[in-house]
Amino acid sequence: MGKTGETPDVGKDSTQAGDVEQKVSKDARTWAMWCHLAGLAWLLWWIVPVIGGIVGPLIVWQAKRDEYVFVDEQGKEALNFQISMLIYSIIAGFLCLGCIGFVLLPMVTVADVILALVASIKAGNGQSYRYPLSMRLVK
């Protein structure tokens, strides 16, 4: 038994799954990072309308998903998250009629930006990222 009371892993590899960094090519990491960053295209509302957050990751994912498995995985994550954020924003917009939406809408916006930036950093480092509160619509 170890110091924390865990039983030793008999017959298992000596490295834990969290300790092994996935080997991903630099190009795959870069394109996966752009999948996540393209989700922030809605911030350029005067150029790209509200759905820009969906269109950006969709374009990058469609262009590179057959070339890189990592981009396929992360592109679906980014796309699902941006679709989820659009749905949450629409719901919060309707809830503005009852005043609670004025609190929820900025929270959804801030969460979208922060989580997309975290995901892009993780993808840039070759690590898979799963967004919290994301509906898995695109499989």
Question: What is the topological layout?
Answer:
Layout: H1 26-38, H2 52-64, H3 69-95, H4 101-124
Helix pairs in contact: 1-2, 1-3, 1-4, 2-3, 3-4
- The counted number of beta strands is 0
**SS-based class:** mainly alpha
Low-pLDDT residue spans: 1-20
Q: What is the rounded Rg?
A: 18 Å
Shape: elongated
Order of helices and strands: HHHH
Largest β-sheet summary: none
How many independent structural domains? 1
The helicity comes to: 55-70%
Distance between the first and last residues' Cα: 41 Å
Number of helices: 4
What does this structure look like?
The chain is mainly α and 139 residues long. It has one domain. It contains four helices and no strands. Helix 3 (69-95) runs antiparallel to helix 4. The chain starts with 25 loop residues before the first helix and ends in a 15-residue tail after the last helix.
What's a quick, concise take on this entry?
With 139 residues, this protein is mostly helical.
Keywords:
139 residues, mainly alpha, 55% helix
